[in-house]
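Onboarding guide, step 5: your first structure request.
Type a short instruction followed by the sequence, for example:

Predict the 3D structure of this protein.
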Amino acid sequence: KPIPSDLMEGLIVANRKGYFKNQMSKPFESEEIVDDFTSFFIAGIQTTAAFTQMMIHYIAIYPEVEEKIRK
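The system replies with structure tokens like these:
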């Protein structure tokens, strides 16, 4: 079995195999899959932003870390 190459393909394949069911126990509609993908995408952006913010914060607090990063 080939492994899905990205998240969207994984969602579509899982839905076709019946792994996902909506509240009426039916496979997701295309719009529901797109909505889920959008949620995952936004969550990834927020996670990356939070990590970057914390990294900049700690670099500002610990100048010796900034110096090591610059080297």
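Each response can be followed by summary notes, for example: The first helix runs from residue 7 to 16.
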